[in-house]
């Protein structure tokens, strides 16, 4: 939980009392590679702070996995629409390697936020960070070519290029695996 405490302190001042109010909403969970944190069709009842490993968000389109996002250490994985609106998730979240997360239980987190305004502030800041990441990803596809998207990932997320398979990365970038191989070959 030390990684989580560091993350929280990077967002907002957080006292020992705030931490004690938050603790009941938290649990450490471990997932093996390919295990699901969330399946499409389920309602998302948690935020998952990634401590070790990484996971992916993906949806099925005509029997093909389309990768929508990857969550590495110090990221929060969730389906924000399902979490906030209590709707069924349109995508799944799956461990891509052995994964350790700190799970924020939605109902217990809301109760803690009602009792402690600093926890409510923390929740708002986390959701803002998630929304900003999604907006950045959307801009990649609206403003950049495939080559530019890859170059952006090289600069902003080098760990993604080192850890994610070519097939999953090409799906994330919205290009064929062969196109990604050509782009990498030119670099």
TrEMBL record:
Residues 10-107 form the Cyclic nucleotide-binding domain. It holds the Pfam family cNMP_binding. It comes from the Bacteria. CDD domains: CAP_ED (cd00038). InterPro entries: cNMP-bd_dom, cNMP-bd_dom_sf, RmlC-like_jellyroll. This is Crp/Fnr family transcriptional regulator. It comes from Chitinophaga fulva.
């Amino acid at each position: 939980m030390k990684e989580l405490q560091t993350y929280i302190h990077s967002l907002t001042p957080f006292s020992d009392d705030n931490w004690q109010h938050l603790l009941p909403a938290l649990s450490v969970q471990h997932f093996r590679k390919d295990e699901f944190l969330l399946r499409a069709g389920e309602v998302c009842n948690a935020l998952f702070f990634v401590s070790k490993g990484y996971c992916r968000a993906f949806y099925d389109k005509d029997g093909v996995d389309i990768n929508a996002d990857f969550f590495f250490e110090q990221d929060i994985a969730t389906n924000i629409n399902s979490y906030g609106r209590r709707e069924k998730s349109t995508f799944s979240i799956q461990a891509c390697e052995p994964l350790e997360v700190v799970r924020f239980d939605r109902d217990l987190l809301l109760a803690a936020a009602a009792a402690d305004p600093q926890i409510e502030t923390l929740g708002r800041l986390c959701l803002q960070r998630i929304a900003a990441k999604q907006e950045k990803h959307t801009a990649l596809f609206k403003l950049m070519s495939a080559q530019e998207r890859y170059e952006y990932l090289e600069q902003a997320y080098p760990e993604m290029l080192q850890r994610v398979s070519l097939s999953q990365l090409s799906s994330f970038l919205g290009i064929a695996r062969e196109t990604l191989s050509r782009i990498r070959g030119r670099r």
